[in-house]
Amino acid sequence: MDFAYSPKVQALRERVIAFMDAYVYPAEAIFEQQVAEGDRWQPTAIMEELKFKAQAEGLWNLFLPESELGAGLTNLQYAPLAEIMGRSMLGSEPFNCSAPDTGNMEVLVRYATGQQKQQWLEPLLRGEIRSAFAMTEPEVASSDATNMAARAVRDGDEWVINGRKWWTSGACDPRCKILIFMGMSHPDNARHQQHSMILVPVETPGVNIVRPLPVFGYDDAPHGHAEVQFNNVRVPYENVLLGEGRGFEIAQGRLGPGRIHHCMRSIGMAERALELMCQRSLQRTAFGKPLARLGGNIDKIADSRMEIDMARLLTLKAAYMMDTVGNKVAKSEIAQIKVVAPNVALKVIDRAIQIHGGAGVSQDFPLAYMYAMQRTLRLADGPDEVHRAAVGKFELAKYAQAAP
Ligand SMILES: Cc1cc2nc3c(=O)[nH]c(=O)nc-3n(C[C@H](O)[C@H](O)[C@H](O)COP(=O)(O)OP(=O)(O)OC[C@H]3O[C@@H](n4cnc5c(N)ncnc54)[C@H](O)[C@@H]3O)c2cc1C
C-alpha cells in the first residue's frame, strides 16, 4: 500500500486546509451565536454562506466514489480530506459532505429511478435540501436490524406506512425533505428479506416529527435527532428502493462507505484535541513547571500521537480495501475501524479535557462537545459490541474448519 498522497489529493488537501483556516474555524462561534439567537430549528445564515463559498471554490461533493457526480475520488483519496473537515464542530456541511446525506446520496445514486434522482438526488447534490435515514425504533433493540417492526404494507399502487422511529438524525431541520424509511414489508420472508427501504417525503400527510432528542443535553440544532411517528403514511409503490424485501442489501452497502466517513472525521477531531492539549500544556504552569512537564503528562501526549497514527493507518487500510477488493471483503477492516476510531478519539479528547482542568468541560473550549459527539459514535454507527462480534466471527472463521 502506497501511503503518499497523489498530486490531486495533495492539491485538494491544501485547498481544504486553507478554506478551513480562512472561513470554517472563524465561523464556529458565529454559528453558535446564530443558533442561540434565533429560532434554533432554522438553518443559519453563516452555514449557507460557507456552502456558497465552498461550492464556488469547487470544494463540493468530494465524497461519492465510483460516480461521475462527485470529485472522482476513491475512498482512500477522500479519507485525508474528510479528516480535515472533521476537525471542526461545523463538520463537513460547508462542503456538502456531511452525514447522513453522504450515505443517503450514495443510496440514491445506486438505487433511485431517473425521476427520483431528479426529484431528490439533484437538490441534495446542490445542497438545497437535506435528508435523513429512519431505521432505529424506540420499541425494539435496533442494533439488530432484523428487529425493525414499523410496517410498510402494499395497498394497490401505494405503500401504507405505520410505526415509530427515533434518532432519525437531521429530520428536525426544515431543509430535510426526504426520509429513507426502513420497515417490515414481508414478515413471511426469510429473516434478511423481510424489510424494505422506501422513500418518504417529509411533507407526506401522517409524517409527524414528534421531538428532537438531545445528546448529553446538546440538541445539535438545527440538525437534531428526531423521533418520528408515521400514521397511515401513503407513498407511491415505486418509492421502494432496489425492490421489495431488499432493505438489508442496501443497508450493507450504505453502512460501508457512509460510515467509514465518520471514522475519518473522528481522526480529525482527535488531532484537534491533541493540538489543544499540547498548546495548553505548554502555556500553563503549575508547581513551577509547564503542565506538559508534570507527572505523566508527556506520556499522555505521546500515547495520543501513537494512537491517532495507528487509527489513521487502519482507516486508510479499510478505505484502500474498499477501493481494491470491495466492501464485502473489507467487512472486517470496516468493523475494526468503527470500533477503533471513536474509542481513540474519546481517549485523546478525555486527556485533553484533563489537561485543561475545569476549562476542559466548559463551553469556552470545544472539547466537551467533541467528547459528546464521539461518545455517540460508539452507538450511532452500531454499538461497538456488534462490530466486535463481526471481527471476532471473521477471525474464528479462519480456524473453524481446522478445529476438531
Ligand atoms: C446521536 C445518534 C444518532 C443516530 N442517528 C441515527 C440515524 O440517523 N438513523 C437511525 O436509524 N439510527 C440512528 N441512531 C441509532 C443507532 O443506530 C442505534 O442507537 C444503535 O443501532 C443501537 O440500537 P439501540 O439504541 O436500539 O440499542 P440496543 O439494540 O437496545 O442495544 C443496546 C446495547 O446492547 C448491547 N448489545 C447489542 N448487541 C450486542 C451484541 N451483539 N453483543 C454484545 N452486546 C450487544 C450493546 O451494549 C448496545 O449498546 C443514532 C443514535 C445516536 C445516539
TrEMBL record:
Gene Ontology molecular function terms on file: acyl-CoA dehydrogenase activity; flavin adenine dinucleotide binding
Top-rank taxon: Bacteria
Domain Acyl-CoA dehydrogenase/oxidase C-terminal, chain residue ranges per copy: 245-393
Domain Acyl-CoA oxidase/dehydrogenase middle: 132-233
Residue stretches making up the Acyl-CoA dehydrogenase/oxidase N-terminal domain: 8-128
UniProt family annotation: Belongs to the acyl-CoA dehydrogenase family.
Protein name, UniProt field: Acyl-CoA dehydrogenase
Lineage, highest ranks first: Bacteria, Pseudomonadati, Pseudomonadota, Gammaproteobacteria, Pseudomonadales
